[in-house]
Amino acid sequence: MADSERERLLPGGSSDARGGAAPFGVTAEQLTAMLDPKDPDQLRALGGPAQLCAALRVDPRVGLEQREHIGAGGEAFQARRAAFGRNVLPEAHAVTFWQLLYAAYNDRTLIMLTAASVVSLAVGVYDDTLGSHRDDDVKVGWVEGAAIFLAVLVVCFTNAINDYQKEKQFQKLNAKKEDRTVKARRDGCEVEIGVHEINVGDVLLIEPGDIVPVDGVFLDGHNITCDESSATGESDAIKKGPAEAGRDPFILSGAKVLEGVGSMVVVAVGPRSFYGKIMMAMRQGEGSATPLQLKLDVLAEQIAKYGMSAAILLLVTLTVKYLVSCALAPEFPPYSIMFSQFVSIVIEAITVVVVAVPEGLPMAVTISLAYATTKMLRDGNLVRQLAACETMGGATVVCTDKTGTLTQNRMTVVRGFVAEREMASRADALAFYGALPAATRALLLESIAVNSTAFEGPDDKGAIDFIGSKSECALLGFGKTCGLDYRSERANNTPARVYPFSSEKKTMTTIVPIQGQPGRYRVHAKGASEIVLRACTQYVDKDGGVAELDDKVRAELLQRISAFANKALRTFALSYKEISDAELDACSADDAPLSSLVWIGVMGIQDPLRPGVHQAVEDCHRAGVIVRMITGDNIETARAIARDAGILTKGGQAITGPQWRKMSPEQQHAILPRLQVMARSSPLDKQIMVERLQERNEVVAMTGDGTNDSPALKLADVGFSMGIAGTEVAKEASDIILMDDDFKSIVKALRWGRAVNDSVRKFLQFQLTVNITAVLLTFVSAVFSADGQSALTAVQLLWVNMIMDTLAALALATEGPTDAVLGRPPQQRNSALITFEMWRMIIGQAAFQVIINLLLLNHGLDLFHLPATAAGMASLRTMVFNAFVFLQVFNQINCRRIQPNEFNVFANIHRDTGFLLVQVAIVSAQWLIVSYGGVAFSTVPLTGYQWIGTLFIGMLSLPVGLFFRMLPDLSACFGLESANSVAQQHLPEVSTARMRMEASVKDVQYAVRFFSAIRSSQQAKQHASADPDHICHNFLEPGASSDATVAPTAAVSTSSSWARVRRAVDNTDPVGQ
């Protein structure tokens, strides 16, 4: 093994080394040291597998004893487990509900709200007991502070409960895979034991399809081949065997056995195994704050500063005003009255702070995320990290796998050519089969049924499906569509000889006796088309007879095979021949009789796209999100699938993983804008891709299913793992689990992510409008009123500020995504949270509401013909309060749409049930407060005329909002970011439209140069006939003139010239389409 292959695969060195080796001849450290990195020299130093078994006190022919006791008494395997550990990972530090609650509370905005609630509660209690309200019948001073504290508790508990439920769902998802059984040899017998009961020294029996749960060393077996790509990233299957034979003797946990049977001795379990080390490493690390969280933290801090400044200014202004009024009064008031007045002023100032602090903002974010993640689970997305939902809304790139995500992970026969008849599509299978001659139909179905090891049985979910090689399953599926009962075919045709599929020979052969012809046998062979065709000398013609396979027919078949391959189809050829008893006896036991075969036909097999994938990719492109496919398949298959899915567009480029790795970072950055497909990729390629994209300020979503994908999933802004095909390590590393492994679910996550961002912005626009209006109205009315009272009392502000904010969060944060969210580009990572359009609406509506309320407060008595008495003033103040609330109700409707050119604020409102219910609740509560609030809310019942008047004033918010929407974009004048500006929108450096245009321009250049070349060739022939000795330069070289001539021997071939022209225009061989 080369030194480069021995480079350590896992960081951190050896695991915890408590295990001593007192009863054994080897330590746990020695065993794990030879696995990471793989080191056959250390295995030899231990004496090889035989001496290793002796050191572990196990006879490989017998296995461990079921009731092994080494040393003094104790449980079975106690000494062994003390030395090497159990095959159980230590339980992850269970985060309790209360820890989640504390983590949710550890937020600056919530801490600031708590401080405000404590101060408000203290002052309110003082005012109720010793201050100006000590004689009131109803004590409501404590309500304000208690309500704010209640809002903090609601936010914290909502976050904690949501996180707790998501963790439980994740544990439930993995629980079914944690407990399974494996075959082991104990006491000389083959037994099944649970994976948690495996010990170091156990002899495990492995066979195709097994996923190895522990690390081991090869003991014996035949043709064992493992796929360790999920652990090591190596896509090639690895042959296992003795180190002396030049094969890999180490079998890592997480490896899948592809073929062969054998046994291995266990050398590492639990956290010391390769898989265990990765799982333990995945438990480390904390997620970073999302862009929206960072912006909201900054905004909340700024609002708090402005609110505090306004409160201090109000406190100073009212204090100075009161002192001046006291000084100008005939008699200086008593100190007790002055103290009580100062307390009232302080309460007014604290009310301004409380109103200014956006206590509804964290609640809106929490409600929006919790609602979205609940709905996303129904769409096939299990959100493990709550913030990933919001981050996905800003995704600019989606890097997706192919198999199982874009495709169905189910190989299917989609094309066929048998007896000179072609099956054009999967839907034509039955008609194609029916058109074949009867003898050919029977021969075809017999070949499919008997020459196969696949079978029908329950899958992991208990559903009945074909199990085995995907290609054989595809052929059996085609046969089932055509009415094949493979079980009866196999029962009637017991194989005389079977030559299993070999990767070297790329064929499988089965010999069965011919029914009704004693002593005669039929050889069925299938495999790689070119290899089978090479062994054929005859073919089944259109009448079902056998004809000679001459050069013309062979060339036609090769052309057909090539056409299938160009469409990225995996081709399987079927053939047969008949032999006698003597010929059967003469057949080699190892080599199948592959000569003089009769060609039956060729089948084109493909893993078809999932339904709706093409539309989902189009939706991503429409949303300004670039989709890149990263797959381990070959480049031709990757290109074909990517074209069918709409990922590889005209002008886009496709490269292989090795080509990508050879590039310098500068070259990688240069190709990235046009790179759409990467084939033959490794997990390292994914990781490099994420790094390069993030260096370009992209928000990257990455899919992965293997253990080795976990670094890329962790590194990506949003990591998607597969719920069906994904390993536990991949799920642990991911932010969102695709429960159905479907690409369409990623698009649904994108829709919900953008809906969350929009919901938060909608609520933010409403929240700031309410806060600015309330602060300004409180400040202005308190400063300019004769008695220093504001237009709204503290309890009324509590309703407006607290209850309205909470209900508004429910209303605006629970609207589902619309098709419009995918009709605009993603937002820049560092874009402003509040756009010019939002500021225009916030300031405009706030100014309008302050003005209308002040006008109503000063001229309402005349407008509504109220008497200038205490009762009239009470009715007027109640109307001001009522109008203020209705202004907020209709402003919520305004805030349903915040994007430019969205004038219809009532769009889909009939489907927004939550919003409508919240408005009904607000209006109903307002009616109760006005009618029965009395002393607590300082209100009096209103007449029907007064209700209609205040309702009309509130409705004015709608035409005012429409007016501000129609104003021109003046963002540049104010230094703000418009929603359609480059600062807000993330636009791809090279759009698909531009790539198509550039490719079309090149096509024109190719055509012009090509026809110029043809014309030059004709001119060359004419000149040559007139002057045979004339020699000219190659017209295809750069700088050659279009009228250059060439010798007649250099006649231009159309195909070769076209290729040379393309190279001449491109200057290099294209790596794209």
Automatic annotation (TrEMBL):
Catalyzed reaction equations: Ca(2+)(in) + ATP + H2O = Ca(2+)(out) + ADP + phosphate + H(+)
E.C. numbers: 7.2.2.10
Compartments where found: Membrane; Vacuole membrane
Biological process per Gene Ontology, one example term: intracellular calcium ion homeostasis
Top-level taxon: Eukaryota
A molecular-function term among this protein's GO annotations: metal ion binding
This protein's UniProt keywords: ATP-binding, Calcium, Calcium transport, Ion transport, Magnesium, Membrane, Metal-binding, Nucleotide-binding, Translocase, Transmembrane, Transmembrane helix, Transport, Vacuole
InterPro entries found in the cross-reference section: ATPase_P-typ_cation-transptr_C, ATPase_P-typ_cation-transptr_N, ATPase_P-typ_cyto_dom_N, ATPase_P-typ_P_site, ATPase_P-typ_TM_dom_sf, ATPase_P-typ_transduc_dom_A_sf, ATPase_P-type_domA, HAD-like_sf
Membrane topology: Multi-pass membrane protein
Region (Disordered): 1-22
PROSITE patterns: ATPASE_E1_E2 (PS00154)
Enzyme class name: translocase
One cellular component (GO) term of this entry: vacuolar membrane
Regions crossing the membrane: 109-126, 146-164, 303-324, 768-786, 798-817, 838-857, 863-887, 915-938, 944-964
Domain Cation-transporting P-type ATPase N-terminal: 42-125
Principal place of residence: membrane
Function of the protein: Catalyzes the hydrolysis of ATP coupled with the transport of calcium.
NCBIfam families, sorted: ATPase-IIB_Ca, ATPase_P-type
Homology family: Belongs to the cation transport ATPase (P-type) (TC 3.A.3) family.
Protein name, entry field: Calcium-transporting ATPase
Name of the coding gene: PMC1_1
